[in-house]
Amino acid sequence: MAKGFFALVLHAHLPYVRHPEREKYLEENWFFEALTETYIPLVKVIDNMLNDGVDFRITISLSPPLISMMADDLLKERYLKHLDRLIELAGKETARTRGTEFENPASMYFNRFHEIRDVFVNRYRCNLLHAFRKHRDSGKVELITSGATHGYFPLMKNREAIKAQVTVAVDLFTRHFGSPPRGMWLPECGYTEGVDEILKANGIQFFFTDTHGIMFATPSPVHGVFAPLYTSAGVAAFGRDLETSKQVWDMHSGYPGDYNYREFYRDIGYDLDLDYISPYIGENSIRIDTGMKYYRITGKTDRKQVYDPGIADERAAEHAGNFLYNRGKQVEYLAACMDRPPLVVSTYDAELFGHWWYEGPQWIDYLLRKMHYDQENVKTITPWEYLNQYPVNQVSSLPMTSWGHRGYSEMWLDPANDWIYRHLHKAEERMVEMAQAYPAAEGFQQRVLKQMARELLLAQSSDWAFIMKMGTSVEYAEKRTKDHIARFNRLYWGIKNNDLDEDEVKTLEITDNIFPDLDYTVYRSDKSNVLPMPRKGEGQGIRNHTVLMLSWEYPPKTVGGLARHVYDLSRALAAQGEEVHVVTCHVPGAKPYELLDGVHVYRVHPVHMETHGFLDWVERLNMAMIDCAHNLLKSHHFDLIHAHDWLVAQAGKVLKESYRVPLVSTIHATEFGRNRGIHNETQRHINQIEWGLTFESWKVICCSRYMAREIAQVFQLPADKIRIIANGVEVKNVIPRVVDPGFRSKYALPFEKIVYFVGRLVPEKGVQVLIQAVPQIIKKFPNVKFVISGKGSYQEELYKLAEQLGVNHKVYFTGFADDDTRNMLFACSDLAVFPSLYEPFGIVALEAMATRVPVIVSETGGLSEVVEHGVDGLKVYPDDVNSLASAVLRILSEPGLAEKLSHSGWEKVNSVYNWGFIAAETIKVYREVVTEAGSVGFASGQ
Amino acid sequence: MKLNVPEYGFPTRYDENFLVLLVRDPHCIYAYWEFSDEQMELIAEELGVTWGQVPLTLRLYDLTGINDDKGSAHSCFDFTVHSLANHYYIKDLDENSSFRVDLGILTKDGLFVALLRSNIVRTPRESPADGSGVMWADLLERLVSRQEKPKSETFSSEGVYGAEIREPDREEG
Fold it and tell me: pTM of this prediction?
């Protein structure tokens, strides 16, 4: 008769990192590594025990994203490729290391990878779910699941959102394994009041909490964590045992830190020559783990010794013996204080075993075999079996807790990630609203609602907030959160405004394809009397605007930056619920009408192509635009017209007058500014048209204070007619994915700081000021390298200047840098300097800020506007060597300041210069104009 | 396969009025809020200043043990927040206590005008409760198959007592 029970619980989860958009996506490796190092080795251990007739029990939680990735054909195919590359590498390595001390570990990997492939391909036909199903059917493995996308329940706002996480997970599990799970692993062990009722309603009988989740229950637990509690909803809660978790988890005293075990942080992906290893690591030779690691932990030293698999295996067996001995002592002690045999619940992340603790799967194998063969005091059990043997348990209510740092929600609610909740909660609300409004959608509408639910669920993964808090792969986690939220809102407005087309939805379905059978009505509220949310504003019923936008170019037609601007702006407006109709010029190959991401685009042909020059052509274009708009206005009501630049001025003016629709214009540049004055008739004519456009417009939008001053002067516009809305920065175009350490060494020595400049090498960019400041800087701070990218008419002078000052060994001219090189240089620089003497726009400084580099700019024009001195960068006087030198020294010598500036700069780029924000600002201008027009009786349809 | 996923703009705000509380740990709650443009204009106009100069006050009410929010709070505490801020961490709270906040304006004559009202939250325990009221029950669900079960079923407190008195059901499912 056993004196006590032991429940081993492994929780396996990874976020959904499937990226069909391209091959060799870095984050997909998370899944591949876990397959090779943890999931397949665990399957092997369990298979072997089943074959050998070992009587054991183990509880395994497979999260729905993990189940979905294991079942996914694209990922299976990519994993096989990944594994074959790994085997090829291991083959090369056995040859290379023959006769050296590394021979032994290298051939171990070679053999293991072959075994892994054999299990994956031959035993389970590339579908590991077959393995887990077989284990479950054996009765020895209690297979359970977790929240649909591992969303953290305590920080959700609506009960329906938690309900959806549970129901969708149970449905997916049932589809793959034939019957519903009996238990659930709450994501991050996050429990909060009311979760128990949702679990119960979904047939879940038990879940797990961290130790204090049980210990701080009310009333206090009589048996501590050594017996489960029922919540009042009738679901059993099992608490984690502190002693066993420490023995395995603890970084210092835990088993995985043993000096004979394999060292995780010495991977050949980093250690070997780049030319040799580059086919087996990331794209562009980005160094990543390969999984082949030849050293043992050795001790607190950098001089690692070679790994010996045999000795490590012996240690795993000893540790298993030690663990078992301690459990014997533990249950003996506990049994004496209890009215029944105690239950010790040990819960772990599955990825600890194999991925972090390489010998972990062997340890589990030894432990469970020893428990079966060597003793009788401690028996393994599943929570379900325990409940059936001991169905009478204490009833208590549990506090909100998690297994995160310090036991509550601070990992997921922190200044590093708190901004996500207002968006997640809004999306929850909107999803519930939609499910209420469309109780039984069919066809296309149903597809859209399902996709909305997928985007919301994917945005909710607790992994994103966790990664943001931990500070590695932050860009990826932020991108994922923002992408899913943005897609969700686009679909929301798409349904409301009925402007979605099949292709757009299909692209999202292919990209975010989790839960093919999802039922969006899980978001329906239990309460029947919930009213649909008002469309915008609280009960105000403010209608969004219908905008007629005129632009002479729109993708695929792109001449300057205008097309890109109108494209990004119109899409961002549509994503926030505005109805946008763009009328633009035809280009061969483009459709005359298309609905593109919620934007209606009409392309018109100027008639009579035999024109007498550009101005004539512009007039024809405007005529064609007016014709097109006449047709549109028969069936549409427009709240306003938004014209971009002088080329469409005439159409804007005519339409405004004939339909009494207010006009707004954006002036991107002026003829005066482009030519530094008006010098001939054509210029005068264009200048006149520009003036006319601003005169006819109710409001004129421009991108900077600098431009605002220019148009106020040139066109004599009153200040209250001008609105400044910054241009957007496409952050993703600037961010390098990972910086290879080898890249930096081409430019500077490891101990040298890098000060970076990029731009045309012309006098007004002020590079000469920077070079003149170099002697002063290196006098105080010798370990610094000045890297200058770009070319231009002034470059020879700059070379000479560096030579004359005797600093050419400290100044490195890279010549012209392509986007990739520039981005990597930004990312590995310690400081970016833009000492321009004249600069209308500050985009380059914003791009630097987007890569999280602290910036110094000179106080001039647009540059001066984007930086707030001492907050998100430093400003210096233009053409002032001393001022520049002291600012550079200040940043180099105050790492705290540099960190603060770069962080604020980065935040700024992501808020003020984000298209979502720009669209919101533009909508404000629209509202202002529409309200004003209404109050003076100037609006169509009235 | 070449997939071109559109990059939609990420919303920075929603032009709505809301104030939401989340619990971070036994001693800290997080408040986030937003004012609609219309609301901001109204308030600023009323006070005769620009929005950036509106003096906002976050008022925290301790509602521990009070069941509804009609009754008066035990105590309240004011924090000054900048009108351009959109969130606040309220720290040094008691464990196992209930709170609500209002965001509003403190007038010169000391009157508090609430503009936004939050949900009510409760901080978790961080110490053992006492052992009074211990109750044992068999709440295990054995025979009911999932499909037949009505989804909204929950146990009431009567159900718990009923189960305690009842002889434990020994049939295995």
Answer: 0.76
